[in-house]
Amino acid sequence: MELWHSLQDIVCLNSDDYAMLARLLVALLAGMTIGSERTYRGRPAGFRTQALVCVTSCLLMLVTVYESHWVRTNVDLIRLDPTRMAQGIMTGIGFLGAGVIMKEGPTVRGLTTAASIWITSAIGILAGIGFYFPLVVSVVITIAVLSLLHWIELRLPSMIYYNFDVRGARTDAFTEESLKQLLRACGFRVTHISYRLDEKGHERRFNMVLYSTNRSSSSRLSKQLENIDSVYGFRITPISG
Question: Rounded to whole angstroms, what are the CA distances from 91 to 22, 121, 153, 230?
Answer without folding.
Answer: 26, 10, 30, 55
